[in-house]
């Protein structure tokens, strides 16, 4: 974080702090994920600013997002650990530099629908809770998905094989490793910088959620859409600073855990299961689009052969690579939880 960004962050946090009356019984400063995307607009913001305060008498919440603060997504849990705010949300893949074990939360091509993806997340939840406590001094509250992470390309493509030799932005480290194993050149570009990078030819293609790409206008700078879930579901983790969690009353803790599941996690997962087709309709202009003005991208059929090639590459190359970079204890935990649920094993 640059000095300018740090000063801006401190100023925002101070403003959040003074905005809450000192007499409030309990108060929370909350930092959400990308402010421009549906997960924040439709679920995060309503839950923290309306639903939870209505359920907990006297609770005061002040909320912003990491991009509005000028903070990188990968810094959110570090700042949460430092106590600069009480609750933080960010994409798990953004934090794998500090916790490579979290790559195991979003393995691509294993879960091809929302029901399977949620089973993976539920299996991984005890592991993620342990990681958040040990790595970031925080209490895991929720794990919610973006839509399936698919491929947007500016040059013409006709299938998975055409990604070979192209510069492709992955949605996370494991996705980037998969792209490289398939012959593409993995390029690290921040989500907010992707449209400009596509437009200038810095990258040829990029992977993100179908709805995220539509909301961020990626269809304005790309022409072809390959709906192969090369990037998994990009789960967003919500956590609270552990000291803050321990200081809350038992009644407030109980209300947060109950409400965040029924009023945030469950609706977000339910929507993710039905949003992909609508997002494709919106991106390609085919079928009914309920999210806004339809675009005109070319839909490239994701064939079973493409899926088989990508999945075999994942199992033979990408997962073993992750197992070598992660502690044996966490690999064992993953195999006995997520791996057992999906019938896949990482490492020996």
Please give a structural write-up:
With 348 residues, the chain is an alpha/beta fold. Helix content is 48%, strand content 15%. The strands form 2 sheets. A 6-stranded mixed beta sheet has the order 7-6-8-5-9-11, with helices on both faces. It folds into 2 domains: 3-146 and 234-274, 3-Layer(aba) Sandwich (D-Maltodextrin-Binding Protein, domain 2), CATH 3.40.190.170; 149-232 and 276-342, Bacterial extracellular solute-binding protein, family 7 (D-Maltodextrin-Binding Protein, domain 2, 3-Layer(aba) Sandwich), CATH 3.40.190.170. Helix 2 (38-55) links the parallel strand 1 and strand 2.
End-to-end distance: 38 Å
Unreliable stretches: 17-24
- Care to count the β-strands? 11
Determine the structural class based on helices, strands and strand pairing: alpha/beta
Number of domains: 2
Helix content: 40-55%
CATH architecture of the largest domain: 3-Layer(aba) Sandwich
Secondary structure blueprint with pairings:
Blueprint: H1 3-18, E1 26-32, H2 38-55, E2 59-65, H3 66-69, H4 76-81, E3 87-91, H5 114-136, E4 138-144, E5 149-153, E6 167-169, H6 173-181, E7 185-187, H7 194-200, E8 205-209, H8 210-215, E9 224-226, E10 236-241, H9 242-247, H10 250-284, E11 298-299, H11 304-325, H12 328-342
Parallel strand pairs: 1-2, 1-3, 6-7, 6-8, 9-11
Antiparallel strand pairs: 3-10, 4-10, 5-8, 5-9
Helix pairs in contact: 2-10, 5-12, 6-11
Structure in a nutshell:
By secondary structure, the chain is an alpha/beta fold.
Please supply descriptive tags for the structure shown above.
348 residues; alpha/beta; D-Maltodextrin-Binding Protein, domain 2; 2 domains; 6-stranded mixed beta sheet; 5-stranded mixed beta sheet; 12 helices; globular
């Amino acid at each position: 974080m640059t000095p300018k960004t740090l000063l801006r962050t401190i100023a925002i946090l101070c403003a959040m702090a003074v905005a809450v009356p000192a007499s409030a019984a309990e108060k929370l400063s909350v930092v959400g994920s990308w402010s421009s995307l549906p997960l924040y607009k439709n679920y995060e913001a309503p839950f923290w600013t309306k639903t939870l305060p209505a359920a907990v008498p006297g609770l005061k919440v002040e909320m912003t997002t990491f991009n509005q603060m000028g903070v990188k997504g990968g810094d959110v849990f570090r700042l949460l650990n430092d106590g600069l705010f009480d609750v933080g949300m960010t994409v798990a893949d953004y934090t794998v530099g500090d916790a490579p074990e979290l790559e195991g939360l979003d393995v691509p091509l294993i879960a091809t629908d929302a029901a399977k993806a949620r089973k993976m997340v539920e299996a991984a939840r005890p592991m993620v809770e342990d990681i958040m406590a040990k790595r970031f001094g925080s209490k895991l509250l929720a794990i919610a998905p973006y839509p399936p992470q698919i491929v947007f390309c500016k040059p013409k493509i006709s299938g998975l094989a055409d990604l070979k030799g192209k510069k492709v932005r992955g949605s996370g480290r494991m996705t980037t490793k998969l792209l490289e194993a398939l012959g593409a050149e993995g390029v690290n570009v921040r989500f907010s910088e992707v449209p400009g990078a596509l437009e200038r030819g810095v990258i040829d293609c990029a992977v993100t959620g179908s709805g995220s790409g539509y909301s961020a206008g990626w269809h304005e700078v790309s022409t072809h859409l390959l709906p192969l879930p090369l990037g998994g579901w990009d789960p967003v983790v919500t956590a609270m600073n552990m000291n803050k969690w321990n200081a809350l009353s038992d009644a407030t803790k109980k209300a947060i855990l109950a409400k965040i599941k029924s009023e945030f996690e469950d609706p977000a997962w339910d929507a993710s299961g039905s949003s992909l087709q609508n997002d494709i309709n919106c991106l390609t202009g085919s079928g009914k689009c309920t999210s806004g003005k339809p675009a005109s991208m070319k839909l490239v059929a994701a064939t079973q052969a493409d899926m088989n090639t990508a999945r075999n590459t994942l199992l033979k190359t990408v997962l073993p690579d992750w197992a070598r970079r992660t502690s044996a204890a966490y690999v064992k935990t993953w195999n006995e939880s997520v791996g057992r649920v999906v019938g896949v094993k990482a490492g020996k």
